[in-house]
Automatic annotation (TrEMBL):
SUPFAM superfamilies: LmbE-like. GO terms for molecular function: deacetylase activity; hydrolase activity, acting on carbon-nitrogen (but not peptide) bonds, in linear amides. It comes from Brevibacillus borstelensis AK1. Transmembrane segments: none annotated. It comes from the Bacteria. Pfam families: PIG-L (PF02585). InterPro entries: Bacillithiol_biosynth_BshB1, GlcNAc_PI_deacetylase-related, LmbE-like_dom_sf. This is Bacillithiol biosynthesis deacetylase BshB1. GO terms for biological process: bacillithiol biosynthetic process.
């Protein structure tokens, strides 16, 4: 597999895009290589089908500027039951593609799968750097430089922000690729996602931007001090 600069990981197709599409758009525009890993196919989602969600994910990939997407096909709402497998496979992927930065969901969220992925990724990033950690493939240890947490449903004060003003409209176009989730269509079930969710994303990005002196920003949390060599 080819190396990537950023690997963004979520439970379901659309998780990463909700929290970090703007940042990923900026990265691809700089010529950086981006990967998205979905741990499940979101087969238990109230609306849409797995097939349609995959088509929407492919459209989102194109809108992001051409990225590599992986899916482990682990059970939706069953990640805790396969936690060790999920960690081992994520370790293998990290060691294969050697991302400089890994993005994971913030560790507190109303959806238990998002919290599960946060824990899985934290352990995988740490274990990937342990030489004797026995993952599924015989690959040398590798640890990414940064692990940052993005927001899906939770909003707390970030300690890292990215100015996405120049690509904000493109981010919203990426999210609109997931019509089955964010639009009310005939026969759909009412969910938080199709009841003003995109407006709440806009509010969050405007709030982070206002706090940072820009129009729109995506917020992230670093669980460890963020090191700079100069101010």
């Amino acid at each position: 597999m080819d190396r990537v600069d950023i690997l963004a990981i979520g439970a379901h197709p659309d998780d990463v895009e909700i929290g970090a599409a703007g940042t990923l758009l900026l990265a691809t525009k700089r010529g950086e290589r981006v990967g998205i890993l979905d741990l499940t196919y979101a087969e238990l989602s109230s609306n849409g089908t797995v097939e349609r969600r995959q088509q929407e994910a492919a459209a989102a990939d194109r809108a992001l500027g051409g990225i590599t997407r992986y899916n482990f096909g682990l059970p939706d709402r069953g990640l805790e039951a396969v936690k060790e497998e999920a960690i081992s496979r994520t370790v293998d992927l990290i060691r294969q593609i050697k991302p400089r930065v890994v993005l994971a969901p913030y560790w507190q969220d109303r959806h238990p799968d998002h919290e599960s992925v946060s824990r899985i990724v934290r352990e995988a990033v740490f274990s990937a750097g342990i030489r004797k950690y026995p993952a599924g493939l015989s690959l040398p240890a590798y640890r990414p430089e940064k692990l940052l947490y993005y927001f899906i449903n939770t909003t707390v004060t970030p300690n890292v922000v990215v100015d996405i003003t120049s690509v904000y409209k493109e981010k919203m176009d990426v999210l609109r690729c997931y019509r089955s989730q964010f639009e009310r269509e005939e026969g759909t079930v009412a969910t938080p996602l199709n009841n003003g969710y995109l407006e709440s994303v806009e509010y969050r990005e405007r709030l982070f931007g206002q706090q940072s002196g820009v129009m729109y920003a995506e917020g992230f949390v670093s669980a460890t001090p963020y090191v700079l060599d100069r101010l």
